[in-house]
Known about the structure:
The complex is a heterodimer of chains A (113) and B (436). Chain A is built from three helices and six strands, in the order βαββββαβα. Chain A has helices at residues 13-22, 70-81, 109-112, and strands spanning 2-8, 29-35, 42-46, 49-53, 56-65, 89-95. In chain A, the strands form two sheets. In chain A, strands 2-5-1-6 form a four-stranded antiparallel sheet, with helices on one face. Chain A has a two-stranded antiparallel sheet with strand order 3-4. In chain A, a hairpin with a 2-residue loop joins strand 3 and strand 4. The termini of chain A are close together. In chain A, 22% of the residues are buried. The mean pLDDT of chain A is 89. Chain B is an all-alpha fold. In chain B, a hairpin with a 3-residue loop joins strand 1 and strand 2 (102-103). Helices cover 71% and strands 3% of the residues of chain B. Chain B is globular. Chain B has 16 helices and four strands. At the A-B interface, strand 3 of A face helix 15 of B.
Amino acid sequence: xxxxxxxxxxxxxxxxxxxxxxxxxxxxxxxxxxxxxxxxxxxxxxxxxxxxxxxxxxxxxxxxxxxxxxxxxxxxxxxxxxxxxxxxxxxxxxxxxxxxxxxxxxxxxxxxx
Amino acid sequence: xxxxxxxxxxxxxxxxxxxxxxxxxxxxxxxxxxxxxxxxxxxxxxxxxxxxxxxxxxxxxxxxxxxxxxxxxxxxxxxxxxxxxxxxxxxxxxxxxxxxxxxxxxxxxxxxxxxxxxxxxxxxxxxxxxxxxxxxxxxxxxxxxxxxxxxxxxxxxxxxxxxxxxxxxxxxxxxxxxxxxxxxxxxxxxxxxxxxxxxxxxxxxxxxxxxxxxxxxxxxxxxxxxxxxxxxxxxxxxxxxxxxxxxxxxxxxxxxxxxxxxxxxxxxxxxxxxxxxxxxxxxxxxxxxxxxxxxxxxxxxxxxxxxxxxxxxxxxxxxxxxxxxxxxxxxxxxxxxxxxxxxxxxxxxxxxxxxxxxxxxxxxxxxxxxxxxxxxxxxxxxxxxxxxxxxxxxxxxxxxxxxxxxxxxxxxxxxxxxxxxxxxxxxxxxxxxxxx
Lengths: 113, 436
């Protein structure tokens, strides 16, 4: 079991969702996130005065999958989120020790799938 | 304390006495003129406030990432439109008539007197109302600078020509076409221009999705129903200026019955739309009920001075159902993306309200007198105004699309027009899903 965490551009989330659905991955959690990487920041203007906005808006996806689904998930996220510009985001993959479905107390792979 | 009250009373009595003495030179006519001017201007200020209503309705019914953009459009279509109407529009609408088609003098209000100024004030807020209807239907995807160009043209040419036909001494008015406060002149003009704009612009990204040749209609919910509701209440409030003010005479006692018919139609429209959605979708829908109140108001605008209170109630009920049907038809069958329902509320219900005068007018209506002549004239007006507005607005939007582009890029649309067009967020410090 792996936990996949991806940070993508907010306006690419819908494309990512479409690609995930195509690869039969339907379960995910999405939250708003702030962050910065190579892109560093961008400038806004409020009543003519520039504001340096250092932390950019991103969305964070968390998807827990069985090992066989790691590659399809990662592929789908890349396909949906990639524009080739700086700021497309990152994907982190980490081992997942256990998973419990609260309703049925199932554990492990069957609880994820 | 008692002494103090006495002093105030004395001052008041003497003050009034001084007032009467000052008005010694006034005649019944000059007082009537003053009352008329005050009424016209107060009504004009009420109608001006409808700009705030439109701004709130349109902001509430669209997404958070475009809120600042739609507010800018509402601000600028008044600002640009007022100047265009001052320089050109008023002359085209009320100048000396050329063949009953358009006016030819009075540009820049040259040689006008105080009465004309107050009349201009009342007319400019009407012109701005017609202009601002369009921004809702074209929301969330229109280039800002292109919208500015449109604003000048509708207030300078498209709207004033229709106004001239009906109110400015033109051919439709001469035929006996009745549109008391502008179901056709203002609302249909805005609604049909909105239709042309929404068609030429195309739907928002993600509104209609085609999978395997089958097109699915998606809902794109507005981000703030409380703001939309505030906007509708402001519009309803302003509408008393719109309809009752259209007497442009405070000495005209029909302002009372006009206020009554306006209220009944709006209430009936809201109720009809609410029950319609309740029966059809299982729950009373707030956004459609709000549209229903507006539909009732638009529907009664033409006939508010010509129909009985009971007829007003019927007109409102019909308009409330009509708007719900029309929104569904335009969205699901025609697949024209109108985020706030402007085409249905203003175009369709404006047309219905104009025809309703031919049906319900106490003097000349088909149902009241059995005479169909008025209904025929109303229908002629509806058709010719549609042809003029839809034709010229289509040419205008196609021209803008050719010269400077009408629509923002897909990426800009997804990121939001606030950031991309204006470089600012409307809800700084709030958590908003910008992917929506």
